[in-house]
Amino acid sequence: MSHMNTPRPSMGAPKRTMTAQLRALANTTAVMAAIFMVLLVAFVWMVTAINSKSSSKDSDSTETTVSTSASSEGAGVVTDQTADTTPEATTTPEVSEVAHASYPEGTKLIALTFDDGPDATLTPQVLDALERNGVVATFFMIGQNVSGADASLLQRMLDLGCELGNHTWSHQILTKVSEDEAYEQLAKCDQAIEEKVGQKATVIRPPTGAGLKQEGLFRYSVDSREYVVNWNDSSCPSDWQAPALGDADYTAQYVIDHAIDGDMVLLHDSHKSTVDSLDKMIAGLKEKGYVFVTVSQLLEARVGNLTIEEAGAKGWDTSKLVEAYPGGPIYGIRYAYSSEKMIFEKKG
Ligand SMILES: [Zn+2]
Fold it and tell me: Does 148 share its domain with 65?
């Protein structure tokens, strides 16, 4: 057929035929190389897909952190796999451990807490005493008081390393209101704090310690990720009534004599005698070897995210540990701690 001959006219010399053959060979090689490249890309894509699938399975594990940090370096699949064997990868789990406060074995910890403030006159004096003695404390504040307070007062608490606590908007006893009202009381207090210093409280103490099983409190603590704590009865001087009220020496001595390791001491920055007791109280506790921490620091150091079973395995006296609410812990914990009045909760 005529068209079979048509490609021929250009091919004349043998040299040209040789070139054509070489070109054909080159074309074949190029095609094969292209196919190989496509297969290689497909293979790499598959490996990547499998890798990301397996690491997303346990999104809480350190594996994810490793692959994320590796890929953020722009290294891709190869570096990702290499990262699993690098020292950086093996040190990753320790980071979360470091995040939990730890103290040398045998260190006695104590958390001073001040409720019902802030008070324009007395709270600065409490902060003076804390600063003078180089210690920290936690302030469970009433939202209404916060609202009328100078922002610099709350800022000073933070600057001194103290912790801000939520004590409801109007010192509402939570057992006397509905679930929604309890929730609103806590949310409103946090809003007041946030308006002053740009951050909310990190712990909650219900007024008078009542209503720990209030569903609104429970729900708010979950939403806000705030611990709910009361205090230790045994070391509480009851500074709102005689004989502690009006007697700074008695107040100081009571706490010094009754404090035990891990206590949260209930005080009020609304009583002058309490403020006046602080220098002696702190000095006496220091003499007994106490290290002053915030409530969150105490909980992190002593409890972390333990379950009651794990606490028992650690050799703790779990007879005084009870779940504040029915049902197992989600990520956090729900216990009474150290005394029957000390219930706290942490949600993850
Ligand atoms: Zn109170």
Answer: no
